[in-house]
Amino acid sequence: MATLAQRLEAMWAERPGLGSWITTVDHKKIGVKYIYTSFVFFVLGGLESLLIRAQLARPNLELLDPDAFNQMFSMHGITMMFLFAMPMLSGFGNYFVPLMIGTRDMAFPRLNAFGYWAFLAGGVFLYSSFLSGNAPNDGWFNYVPLANKEFTPGPNIDFYCLGLIFLGISSTGGAINFIVTILKMRAPGMTLNRIPIFVWGELAMSLQIVFALPALTAAALMLELDRKFGFNFFDAAEGGDPVLWQHLFWFFGHPEVYIVVLPAFGIASAMIPTLARRSMIGYTYIVLAEVATALIGFGVWVHHMFAVGIPALSLSFFSAGSMMVVLPTAVQVFAWLITLVSGRPVLKTPMLFVLGFIFTFVIGGLTGPMLGLVPFDQQVHDSYFVVAHLHYVLVGGAVFPIFGAFYYWLPKVTGKMLDERLGKWSFWLIFAGFNLTFFPQHILGLLGMPRRVYTYEAGLGWDGYNLASSVGAGLLTVGIAITALNILRSRRRGAPAGPDPWGGETLEWASTSPPPDYNFETIPRVHSREPLWDQPELRRGAQPVEAGAYALDDGHQVLSTSVVDATPQAVLHMPHATAWPFLLAIALTALTYGILLESPLLSALGTVGTVVGIAGWFWPQGETQET
Amino acid sequence: MSAGVRDAAEGLPHHAGGTRAFGWWGMVGLIGTEAMLFGSLVASYFYLRFTSGPEWPPGDIAKPELGLVAIMTVVLWSSSVPVHIADLGIKKGRQGLLRWGLAIGFLLGATFLVMQIMIEYPQTLEEFSPTTNAYGSLFYGLTGLHGSHVVVGLAFSLWTQVRAWRGAFDERRHVTVQNFAMYWHFVDAVWAVVLVTIYLSPHL
Amino acid sequence: MRALRRGHKLRAVGAGRRAPIAVLSTLLTAACSGPASMLEPRGTVAARVEGLWWLIFWIATVAFVVVLGFLFVAVIRARRPDEPDRSSSPSGERFVIASGVVVPAVVLIAVFVVSVRDTSDLARAGRSSRLVVDVVAHDWWWEVRYPNGGVTANEIHVPVGEPVRIRLQTADVIHSFWVPRLAGKVDNVPGRVNWTWLQADRPGRYRGQCAEFCGLQHAKMEFVVVAQPASEFAAWLNDIASPAQAPTGVAAVGEQIFLGTTCVGCHAIEGTEADATVGPDLTHLADRETLMAGAVANTRANLARVITHPQAVKPGAVMPPTDLSPDQLEALLDYLQGLR
Asked: Which chains, if any, share at least 3 CB pairs under 8 A with chain C?
């Protein structure tokens, strides 16, 4: 009789080959695709920022013409938010959430596959705008009436609206998938107060996507109707209001910040106890703080609109809300700090990125409440001070943890460690380059330099800071390139990672590196928040069935467990590899281009393809659970 | 069971319905995000109403006529009853209740859609279109968004019916029916919001 | 902060073209000084905001130093990996609540109160103004109208020491009115009338610039606020509402050229039949310091380029090129340069 591992392998392995790259529904393969694809977009967004910094290095340069500059900063923002940060964090979530909660896949594997293909297609769609030189050029915030047909007659903004609606489908599907996975698939015994903080972060992110993203989708839909069919939602002359766009955009746009930083905070919270060799102090407060941030995050959007001419009373209300959001953030920062100082930190590269993250993010966190003060905000709003602030928050709060995660978690993915020496070089270059790029921008803002200007004149005291900022961007690039090389190099020459290179406490370290297709030989029963530190049998391989583990070895199955206590409720059968999600994404792409190009043929083909794609997807196949 | 390891899973049901099924939670998530989509448009409606002048609807547009809409409302809401009966029926294994409940629900939903497209819109379009002003955009935008959800619901219903007539569901396996019913009730519930916003609020 | 002030002088020393030294000195000294620096306020509103800034700057600095201290301790406690410490830490959790909730809440409430008081004090102070100036933003310049009918562009004259209310509107997209040394910004929004006010405490020229992204030439949408003693301002205001002196000689020929070409389709000049409002009013063009909203200095050569090749001066500007013979151009320039 075959061993348990062999039987599971037979049921969970997908056929190898190029085809499986398209048809896979394995959360790990999809996670890896997310991570690498979004890294490519990170490079593209980075190149755009380098062009921006080159143009602004000195006064009156003419490297880029004004329209090219506008396309660059618009695509930089769109790329970093929608094509890098969100999918990168979804990628890590995809890979690690099922491992950390002890299950074998995501709740909806085909939706997961579709989410990736829709993300890729949406990204390619947005970038195809460069082919005709008509990339979105009115900023990621895309204010009307500038973005109306009258003032931007080209297809630039149609790419924006349709692209974001398309990407929204991907993110929403992914978010629902995370929510159900986290609520319903946790290993037996992993009660709510034992969920790893990273998983809480992904849950908070997903809830925000589900409830905030529709505002952006609605806004993009309304604007596209205005542009293509002459609707008047945003036309002041016809009873519409351009400020409505701003409300809808920022109702999404501010939570978007937390969508990006909450899971990244989760990454830091995953690394800190392991690398500080200490249980997290204030776990409960951190979790409550993440939830509170997600909630308060919905009540602060107007602080992006303090100069619009909104009545003073509602300004005060939103100002107070923006102050309040500091508290849960401070709780997390001080919980990390007290854990770090009462532990024995191991200063390996991921820990450096954690320390760098706290350093930079705290600066952004301190300028944040300043921007919530109405009179001060009215001075620095739309100046470089805000550019500095948001990069300290988003690069500090998300990019540093993500780079830490490359060093901390990629060994689990590839089985190979990254090089420490290169890692330290990379960290210090990124840290120095980042601060050199963005710290002077605070001063530029105070010196009156507005955002989104393609050039500036000499003699305003701005020259030196701009030059420093551009030099810093170069350093930052080198630092990032070293990590990219380090990742490539590790695949051939990296030291073997072993299952648990860091002595971690969460379940992903109970599996081999890389994990088998079925993740765990047995679905373990969990008795604490730090199962690997508490249950030595988990470090010695599979938990035996006698100890309460589940083998689930007579089918392609997962456990459905209860939301609060993670008590097993049912065995559900999971779908197998399929090409339908891929084909559906292709059909939707055709439909999107059809609308963009106003081509009835392409639109019709896309619509038919979409219907066929959905039908094929849900066509009953054997044991698969019905969805 | 085959030569599997004997573990505690042997006592657990397979193909569970209700909140044990992932699909139930997925549908709740979808409904949550869709509700926010409608919420965004409803918020836009009231935002534009209260930032525009005292006259609403603006221009020479009359207040919405309520007779036809009352009939449409009755038709749409009554469709939830057979769908609910179908849902309850299959949980007890009653194939007949399932098939006829779905069919009647489908016919009522389709009637609503036909009334909207063939009777209501031709009437209102004589008076104003989406391009007339922001009010027109809101009127057709919100009712159109709802209508498109009815279309999706009808397609979903057709799919469920085909499978129901082929005997795909029984008292243990009916997640699709359950999800369709949830979606359909949601589309009906959202109509209440559309009704109050578009048709009733201008009369207040 | 002392370092910042001192840096101002150091910068003058290193002002040569020796790039490395210039860069270094600029970097090190972090001079917060410049023609648009909000930290060198010259107006009531900006001065109040500067006070608020230093309050929050010092609070932020203290908070950051505390965090740095923790990071420093974390680094010096660094060790090789060993068995994890599993103990719970009630005192640590109390610390998290005290430093994460209690202390920041107290500080933030205090700062919030100061900020709200600033807002309401400033709003009250603005109400006492007697002069209202209309500022209409266009792609990409500023139309300025005074109650006596005087019209100009890209420069706003105000009397020193008096609050002036500004009524903000836009002719096209959203723009934002910002004079960092005098007051914070308020947007010009289609379909709305927004109000702001400013008061210059000293005579001078204060740089303003559009702060809301408004398309191709957002970067070149500047204006200047000229603060003058009351009597000077009164004279200027009187002057701006009356036509320029009548042209003579070649300039009179230039006037006919102006009136005979496409110029009149967009521009107005008081005292002539040119009264279009698409582009800036040119009645007192020669008095202005820059052309095309700060794109270039108002010199004869630049004016010639603006007329013949506006798209080279400011790509995307609404102004079309005008084809003129050299003689015609010279006459037109004579005319325009006489508009004082």
From this structure: A
